[in-house]
Design goal:
Layout (H helix, E strand, L loop, with lengths): L11 H11 L32 H6 L10 H16 L57 E2 L2 H18 L2 H8 L6 H20 L13 H4 L4 H4 L22 E2 L54
Antiparallel strand pairs: 1-2
Helix pairs in contact: 4-5, 5-6
The protein binds a DNA duplex (10 and 10 nucleotides) through strand 1 and helix 6.
Main location: nucleus
Protein name: Transcription factor PCL1-like protein
GO molecular function, one term: DNA-binding transcription factor activity
Length: about 300
DNA sequence: TGAGGAATAT
DNA sequence: CATATTCCTC
């Protein structure tokens, strides 16, 4: 008996990031380049238990005040949904909240939490056996859907890294979104750059096509990009709440091409919300989802 | 090797 | 069209 040396030692990076926020090192000598360390501490964590539903609305619908929800609960819920969406066979360990790995990114040894699992010491007779090795390999990931939220995070990270340092791997790491692969980011980045480039050329030129329903249109591109500024300190309070990272949304497995107008059914958003406290005028929106329709309409600052 | 990035593919 | 995958170069 004696298996599992490291209890929870998945991938270094992730662990590191989380460890940072966990540590109470207020050592901000002003040299910390890693804004990651800027992550809020446990005491600064946005109220997870904040009700997403306004009290008025809640009472109107007789919605009982949300039960105490801890980060763990939220995360767990997300994980639940997530896993059930893809396969539903991942026993969510309700021990600690951390970016679990629903599947491994690029062929990484699956960290066996080892618990109620049979230690398969290479079952020789597994010739035609059911390949339950669908853990990660052999199984194709569903298409990643870049929701406005995800994209927002993406833009935030990219803008903070600077166009120069914004490379897939780094972006992926800083986004720290479970399930996000380098390829995902690379692909998106490619398109994003294209968009930025195109926009830069038309900076203040050409009519803004009202058809800009593009995801990109929803998230303003940092001027530093369209422009050519070295690195203007564009402070941003990144609200990367450890433990409840936005779960990437996936579309349907394969076919389904969505015909021009009319929206497809699916509609699952992420359970995030308090990204960017809203002090900085970076994004502007903080809506909690964007499946069906969200952006086509401009933000209405409350009703006048 | 592995990663970035453009070119293709689906 | 939005992503994914491939291909090529460093």
């Amino acid at each position: 008996m004696g298996e599992v040396g490291e209890g929870s030692d998945f991938d270094g990076e992730f662990a590191m990031i989380m460890a940072n926020q966990s540590e109470q090192d207020d050592d901000q000598s002003g040299r910390v380049t890693d804004w990651v360390m800027d992550l809020p501490t446990a005491s600064e964590l946005p109220p997870l238990n904040l009700s997403l539903v306004p009290q008025e609305l809640a009472s109107a619908f007789q919605i009982p005040p949300e039960p105490g929800r801890s980060a763990m609960d939220v995360t767990r819920a997300s994980n639940n949904t997530f896993s059930s969406l893809r396969r539903n066979s991942l026993p969510i360990s309700n021990s600690n909240f951390k970016p679990f790995s629903p599947f491994n990114p690029s062929g990484h040894a699956p960290n066996h939490t080892a618990s109620a699992m049979v230690d398969d010491a290479d079952s020789t007779g597994g010739a035609d056996d059911l390949d339950q090795d669908q853990s990660a390999r052999t199984v194709k990931r569903p298409r990643l859907v870049w929701t406005p939220q995800l994209h927002k995070r993406f833009v935030d990270v990219v803008s903070h890294l600077g166009l120069k340092n914004a490379v897939p791997k780094t972006i992926m790491q800083l986004m720290n979104v479970e399930g996000l692969t380098r390829e995902n980011v690379a692909s998106h980045l490619q398109k994003y750059r294209l968009y930025v480039k195109r926009m830069a050329g038309l900076s203040s030129e050409g009519p803004a096509s009202p058809s800009d329903n593009s995801l990109f249109a929803s998230t303003p591109v940092p001027q530093s990009f369209t422009r050519e500024s070295p690195q203007l300190p564009v402070p941003m309070s990144y609200a990367g709440v450890p433990g409840m990272y936005p779960v990437p949304v996936f579309g349907m497995g394969q076919n389904h091409q969505l015909n021009g107008h009319g929206h497809m059914g699916m509609g699952m958003g992420m359970g995030m919300m308090p990204i960017t406290g809203g002090s900085h005028g970076s994004g502007a929106y903080s809506n909690g989802f964007g499946p069906g329709a969200s952006y086509p309409h401009h933000v209405n600052h409350g009703d006048k």
